[in-house]
Amino acid sequence: MTSEATTEAPQIHKGLAGVVADTTRISKVNAETNSLLYRGYPVQDLAAQCSFEQVAYLLWHGELPTNAELAEFTAHERSGRALDPVVKSVIDTLPTSSHPMDVCRTAASVIGARHPRSEDSSPEANLAKAKDLFAAFPAVVAYDQRRRRGQDVVEPREDLDYSANFLYMTFGEEAAPEVIEAFNVSMILYAEHSFNASTFTARVITSTLADLHSAVTGAIGALKGPLHGGANEAVMDTFEEIGTEGGDITRRAQAWLEDALATKKKIMGFGHRVYKKGDSRVPTMKAALDKMIAYYNRPDLAELYTALESAMAEKKNIKPNLDYPAGPTYHLMGFDTQTFTPLFVAARITGWTAHIMEQREANSLIRPLSEYNGPDQRSL
Ligand code: ACO
C-alpha cells in the first residue's frame, strides 16, 4: 500500500481534522476562548449593533461601511431583489416533492448562467456577482416556500431593510420589529465560519479557477447534509418527535434521548468539529430564541429545549451548536422546517463569496493525496 506520492507510510488526517489548509483574514474561530471574530470584530457585538447588510459589506471589504458606502450598497441590494422571471419559471418546473435545498442549488446555477459577467472572474466581477446573488437569493427562498403552500410570489418592498423584506416576501405581511431583529441576528450568526465543509467546498471549486456561481452551487450541495447545515431542520424534526403536548416534557425528552443514543443516533444540533466546549454563537442565538418564545408565548418549547440540552449534557457531555437554537427560532417565525437550511444559504452566501474572492487572490489548486488500500497490481 503506497500513497500517490511517496513509499513512506503517510499520516492520514481522516476528515482533514486538525489540518490547517490555508490562511484567511475573513474570520477567526477560537475554540479555546469560545470566540468568533469576523474581520476582527466579535460576532456577538456585530449581532447586537449591526444590520446584516453592514456585516455582509464587512465580510467582503474587510471594513464596516461608512454611511455613504452603506447607502450605496443598500440601494443596490434593494434594486436587485425581484425574482427573475426566468429563475421563477425554472423553479416552477421543479416538483414540490424536491427538497428546497435542491431548488436553491438549481437557482444559484441558473442565476450564474444568466449573469452578464458569468465568465468574468476578475475581482470587480466577483464582487458584483456576490452582491447580486446576496440581493437576489431571498426571493428564491421566499417564493419556494410560498409555492409549496399554493401561494403566489410577493414582490419585494424597497422601503424595508434586508431582513424585514425577506420576511415580507415570505409571509406577505410586515413582520413585528422583534421578529425582524431575531431574524437579522440569525443571518449575522450564520454568515461566516472559516473553513467549514461548505466554505471549503467553495474554495476547492474556486481553486480550479471555476467561476463564483459554480463554487456557490457546490457549497449549497455541501450545506444540505445533516452533519452541516441540514442539522437546523433535523433539530425541529427531533422536537416534533418528542412533542410538547401532554405529559412531562422533561421525562419525554430524556426517554427519547436514551432510545436515540441506544441506537447510536447522532443528535442533531449538538457537537462541533472545532468547538468542543460549546459553540460561540449559541448564547446570542439562544437569546434571540428566548425573545421569540416570549413573543409567541411558547414556554413549552423553552422547556423542551432545556430538557434535551440538559439530558445531552448529562449523557454525553456534548453541547449544542448554532443549529439547535436556530431551528426552533425559524419554526416560531412561521417558516416550514425544510426552509431552514435555505435561510442558512441566504446568510452564508456572504461568507462563501468572501472566501471565493480570497482564494482567487492567492490561488493554489487544492488537491490532497490519498493512501491507496485497494488490491495490489494484478493481471487481467
Ligand atoms: N450526537 C451524539 N454523539 C455525538 C454527537 C452528536 N450530535 N456529536 C459527537 N458525538 C460523539 C460521537 O459519536 C463520537 O463519540 P465516540 O468517540 O464515542 O464515537 C464523539 O462524540 C466525537 O464525534 P465525531 O463525530 O468524531 O466528531 P466530529 O468532530 O467528527 O463531528 C459533527 C462533528 C459532525 C458536527 C458531530 O458533532 C455531529 O454529527 N453533530 C450532529 C450534526 C450537527 O448538529 N451538525 C451541525 C454542525 S454546526 C453547523 O453546521 C452550523
Automatic annotation (TrEMBL):
Active site feature: 272, 323
Gene Ontology CC: cytosol
Reaction it catalyzes: oxaloacetate + acetyl-CoA + H2O = citrate + CoA + H(+)
InterPro entries: 2-MeCitrate/Citrate_synth_II, Citrate_synth-like_lrg_a-sub, Citrate_synth-like_sm_a-sub, Citrate_synthase, Citrate_synthase_AS, Citrate_synthase_bac-typ, Citrate_synthase_sf
Pathway info: Carbohydrate metabolism; tricarboxylic acid cycle
Gene Ontology process terms (BP): carbohydrate metabolic process; tricarboxylic acid cycle
A GO MF term: citrate synthase activity
Keywords tagged on the record: Transferase, Tricarboxylic acid cycle
Family affiliation: Belongs to the citrate synthase family.
Name of the protein in its database record: Citrate synthase
Organism: Crystallibacter crystallopoietes
